[in-house]
Amino acid sequence: MFKKISFIGLIAMAALSTMSLTNAPAVAEEPAEVNYTKYCASCHGEKVEAFVDRKWKHGDKKSDILNSITHGYPDAGMPTWKEVLTPKEIEKLADLIVENLAGVEQYKFANKPTSNIFKSDGMTIVLDTIATGFDSPWGFTQLPSNDYLITDRAGVLYLVDQKRNKTAIKGTPEVYAQGQGGLLDVTLHPQYEQNGWIYLSYSKFKMEDGAKVNTTAIVRGKIKDNNWVEAQEIFEAKPYTKTSFHYGSRITFDKKGHLFFSVGERGMEKVFPQSLDNDNGKIHRLNDDGTVPADNPFKNTDHPSIYSYGQRNPQGLTTNPWTDDIWETEHGPRGGDEINIIKAGKNYGWPVITYGINYDGKPISAISKKDGMEQPISYFIPSIAPSGLTFVTGDKYPAWKGNLMIGSLRFNYLNRVEVKNNKVVKQEKVLLNVGRMRNVKQGRDGYLYVGVESPGMIFRLRPQ
User: Fold this and answer.
1) Both 101 and 133 in a single domain?
2) Each residue of 1-41: pLDDT tens digit?
3) Average pLDDT for the chain
4) Global confidence as pTM
5) Would the keyword Magnesium turn up in this protein's UniProt record (predicted)?
6) Residues 137, 28 share a domain
7) Which of 48, 160, 215, 317 has most Cβ atoms within 10 angstroms of its Cβ?
8) Which DSSP symbol is given to 18?
9) Which range marks the domain in which residue 80 is found?
10) Pick from 249, 106, 101: nearest CA to 185
């Protein structure tokens, strides 16, 4: 009897077990974004939109991506995921990647310009050629006479008149014109008509232990009879390095007469930008004569000109004409170019936080936000390589008034940014494929001017 009951009990337990397995709920499939963060981000970076900005060795069509995720390329370090993810999860992950590829495709402008007339939202623009024959027209400013001062990165400061005649100014500092170095920005003192001061940024060099080292420097001087005279060096970034990139070097004045300028981290992100014992990877503020303002945030340190830190390579710096805030753009690595409002003493995070990844596709940081570090007003993925920055004022461009203009080196266009309450609300790509845009600036005459490379030219944007 006992054996019979036990046998029946075993049958009942087996039946219950079978029912339990049959009725067990299916494991929920994770959203593609969750799976990307869980399985992909450690190798490819936090932002999928940055990851997709690459050369696709095995193809970028959905079928190619499905194959790569499913079967992997183990010999190249890409594991197979078919034992971890369901076929549906793999398909959703491939869809996510293809969807983000559209963010890169939007910059592949099909055609070169066929005329000098360009259409924009609410504006038609005619490009007038102002000057030609430059290597890289890095800096631009307009004199009260309406003539122009233009720096060529190769090391020459030019005076260009209204008839497009170029005159090289003699006696400017010798520059380290290697890599990204050379003669860089130029701007006038706010009271130029009274004092005649002109400010230049450049890559300064010297010999140290038998090797040539260089840095970012700021000098001011005057022009008399086409000669650079009364030169006064008011800043040199320390320490010097052997690297030849990430100089920063944009210059702007605020309404109080303070001189702001950028210094890049010289490609040494693990050494300079997060430390206050050096000048690199920073925005600096000085009085017009190079002395330190009494309210500078780090005035009692060995580097008292530092105003903010944690910057990478800021090549856009301008003063908001309505608020007097200092606005900045800086290059990210692969993805993560930023628009920032610069605040005294603040840390802008590089390289602890970033929205970009390294050029080799590997993550730089696992995070893009951290307490005590400033978030950008906006950021670009993929990188547009921003250089030059200006606000549009006056009445010559009614549809653009109040907008922020940014040059794109990588994609050869002008980026128009509508800003409300310090937030980006709309962007438009203007002057498509006009050239590798090094600079954009509004002149004293109210017109916008852009400088492009390869070939080096300056254009005026004339509303039609």
Assistant:
1) no
2) 434 444 344 444 444 344 444 454 555 789 999 999 889 98
3) 93
4) 0.89
5) no
6) no
7) 317
8) H
9) 2-105
10) 249
